[in-house]
Amino acid sequence: MSGQDQAGGLVGPAADVLARLVRTALDEDLGGDPGTDVTTTATVPADARTVVEVRLREPGTVAGQVVWVPLLADAARRLGQETPVVELLAADGSHGAAGDVLARLSGPTRTLLVAERTGLNLVGRACGVATATRAWVDVLAGTGVEVLDTRKTTPGLRAWEKYAVRCGGGTNKRVGLFDVAMVKDNHAAAAGSVVAAYRAVRSTSPDVAVEVEVESTEVALAVVRAGGRFLMCDNMTPDDLARTVAAVRALVAELDGPGGRVLLEATGGLTLARAPEVAATGVDFVSVGALTHSSPQLDVGLDWTG
């Protein structure tokens, strides 16, 4: 997911990831590569040129602007036309009001029409995720607690949606199954216990961060005694969560000394209304699957100006 630095210091999806996303989306719309737009080909002269503006129809957090350049370049290649000029007027991560112009695009009309729906789909999706994430970041402001995303993403759009989470001020937890280990209830059942599962993962993948899902204070303490220092507290009440946080931090201080560090995450059934109460328990993170699996699309349109 690393890539060149974008406006606002955000790092967008790597160029190859973005190129693959654009290529797949255009193939889907055009029926292959180069494919065809039967309506545009029939009604728009090849030499026609247009200026259009990408505009927010409702307020929200801007995200996905990084798509316009590679998208229009790929569309132009397929049509054998010059690549339209892209003027970005709002940075990813910024707040936009209804009616704000995000970008101005100018060039061959056929290319702009071919790319229009793909671009609006991707930008609208990204803005929706970023806007939902920003709501969590705002409600947690001043608590020191970060909001994390999860793997509950749209297949094929994970890199895009995780970038949108960052645009909204959130933090990416892990990319997939390969970069961070997460011991959950099914792994514990297969291994015989949570502690056995943790030890098995730590033994086979010593250089990978390991997070362990726990559902009680007792299990959390057992994992800490086994060496675990990254715990996900699942579906605990605020009172149980507070007791678990206090007990775990006390045990880590006893085992590792005053400088001992453990990372604690709350997850399961979280809502914006409950977020301040959960943050007050002393956790470091809250993880919210709804950022990516339930965020509504933000309404973004494309208006012709000439």
UniProtKB/TrEMBL annotation:
Location of the Quinolinate phosphoribosyl transferase N-terminal domain: 37-127
E.C. code: 2.4.2.19
Pfam families recorded: QRPTase_C (PF01729), QRPTase_N (PF02749)
Protein name per Swiss-Prot or TrEMBL: nicotinate-nucleotide diphosphorylase (carboxylating)
Keyword Chaperone: no
Similarity annotation: Belongs to the NadC/ModD family.
Function: Involved in the catabolism of quinolinic acid (QA).
Molecular function via GO: nicotinate-nucleotide diphosphorylase (carboxylating) activity
Catalytic activity, reaction form: nicotinate beta-D-ribonucleotide + CO2 + diphosphate = quinolinate + 5-phospho-alpha-D-ribose 1-diphosphate + 2 H(+)
Annotated ranges, domain Quinolinate phosphoribosyl transferase C-terminal: 129-303
Keywords on record: Glycosyltransferase, Pyridine nucleotide biosynthesis, Transferase
Keyword Glycosyltransferase appears in the UniProt entry: yes
Taxonomic lineage of the native organism: Bacteria, Bacillati, Actinomycetota, Actinomycetes, Micrococcales
Superkingdom of the source species: Bacteria
Pathway the protein contributes to: Cofactor biosynthesis; NAD(+) biosynthesis; nicotinate D-ribonucleotide from quinolinate: step 1/1
